[in-house]
Write a structure and sequence with these properties.
- 86% of the residues lie in helices and 0% in strands.
- By secondary structure, it is mainly alpha-helical.
- α1 packs antiparallel against α4.
Length: 129
């Protein structure tokens, strides 16, 4: 995932959220959608605006584990929700799954960056054994 794609995902989510308002989604259901967009925007902001990559092998390993676990849970939740979303065909539910998939792409990007950092931080002697 490129930085441009991350920003496009946030912009698309905000645009789709505005469309849900026009479609008359109830305020209670709209709260969940607004929260999903805020979470995505916060995630992108943190990835782009903070120094989040650990420097030691042990910290990188721990971060990789956490991101991988978050990604696994998110993918499981999306898979579980897809049948219900397709069956009900409610626009706000589809929107939340779509936003979760964007968050998944962000987690995949984060995992890739961490894996590359781990490869660079691990002493070469550890790779040759």
């Amino acid at each position: 995932m490129e930085i441009r794609q991350m920003i496009q995902d946030v912009a698309r989510a905000k645009n789709d959220l505005a469309g849900l308002v026009l479609d008359g989604v109830t305020p209670q259901r709209l709260k969940r959608c607004t929260s999903a967009v805020a979470d995505l925007e916060t995630g992108v902001s943190e990835i782009l605006g903070t120094a989040w990559i650990p420097q030691t092998v042990s910290e990188l390993t721990a971060a990789i584990y956490c991101v991988n676990e978050n990604l696994r849970r998110l993918q499981s939740d999306v898979e579980d929700a897809l049948d219900v979303v397709i069956e009900r065909a409610l626009p706000d539910e589809f929107f939340r799954v779509s936003t979760a998939m964007s968050m998944g792409r962000l987690l995949e990007y984060q995992l890739d960056v961490l894996m590359n950092a781990l490869a660079l931080a691990t002493p070469k002697t550890k790779w040759t054994n």
